[in-house]
Design brief:
It holds the Pfam family Methyltransf_23. With about 400 residues, the chain is of the alpha/beta class. It is built from 16 helices and seven strands. The longest helix has 20 residues. Bound molecules: S-adenosylmethionine and 2-acetamido-2-deoxy-beta-D-glucopyranose.
Amino acid sequence: MNQQQKINLTRRSKYEASPLLSRARRNTVAVVIVALSFVVLFVLNHDDGTSNSTALRQKPSQSADALRKAIQDDDSVAAEKHTKTNLVDPEAKNNLEDPDEDEETHPWSWIGYLDKLANKDVEFVTSELKEYADGKTYYKSPADFLKGCKAKELPDKRCGFLGGPEDKFTAMAPHVMKVLHHLGMTESSRVLEVGVGLGRNAQSLINFLDEDKYCGIEPNGDMLAVGVAHMVGKKAIDEKRPMFSTNSDFDFGVFFDDEPDGNQLFDVVTSRSVWSHTSKMQNEKYLASFAKYTKPTAFLATSVIKVTEDCSKDYNGTEWVGKSHDANNEGIVIHCMPWIREACAKAGLIAKSLAEEAPELMKGDGVQKWNDLGQPWIVIRHDPSESQETPK
Ligand SMILES: C[S@@+](CC[C@H](N)C(=O)[O-])C[C@H]1O[C@@H](n2cnc3c(N)ncnc32)[C@H](O)[C@@H]1O
Ligand SMILES: *[C@@H]1O[C@H](CO)[C@@H](O)[C@H](O)[C@H]1NC(C)=O
């Protein structure tokens, strides 16, 4: 039995087990049958992205380790290869675990905050986090946070999932800040970060921006609480008053009271390592929200696994792939440029790769060489010819 299903069985109602899983819990034989049928389903339909993620949820095997390493290295070619091997792993059926044991060891049971935060409105989440951050160990930088984790300064399990490879944890914020700054973000920009994770980027953004300018969405309340308590810290929360939401519907409207006036709309929306896990349906929701809740001059900078015109490897499933608030599986997905451009066009938007949008940023050689830390960026803007409003 895999981690996600286990959590589904034991966590709050939203993730409560389907009737199928409840039966499986009572009957180990049924578990084996269910798992075997997943394997069979996959073999019959090996190109379907949805069975992809199902099969990836098996307990780690050798190929799963190779996949994990490829993901860590942001090596999408190797990841693709090992995704395939992992899916047809003949040993998968032997790797089933007892569904009733070890919920305790789930890396996101760090502080058990999820139940308190999930599905609450923005104000509630923000004030709860403020209270939570009070008096906790504060790390000035992601590097210090990581060091603190390794030195076991933090209670066990609070350093579980970093939101990406460890060797890039500390390099990410400067990189993200460079990209956003180059694209036009200023201190007075109203910025929304979708998929905050532990907040390695949020910390820099919140410190850089004026007060009341930063908003963040992160459905994994545990992860958000750890980052807010130990990296963002009480001082920044008191002074800059960032707002957080735990909604998982890509609903940007939660940050506005009613119909927002034009000045309240976002100038910048950004996601790092989020479109590398989303389904096409989720991206469409994301784009609809972007179109509705941003100024005509706004931009979205979102990183992807690769910028490609080849759509043959695209993920066509309907669910998030990889770790999230309700999944503990590994995985990455590809969305090709033709699909992204088409989805944008439907929402009145235009998509370009950062390399196209800002070629000057890519220049440099030797130590100055452009480094996208493994995920290139896509920049999305409103299509001026579609806009009803007069651009500023
Ligand atoms: C790979 S991590 C990246 C975290 C962060 N952007 C960073 O660079 O450190 C992806 C994050 O997206 C979050 N996520 C999952 N489903 C989401 C959803 N529906 N809406 C927003 N974020 C989501 C996950 O919980 C996770 O924190
Ligand atoms: C997803 O759909 C596209 C367009 O129909 C197709 O080209 C691609 O091969 C599909 N992806 C997979 C993994 O089958």
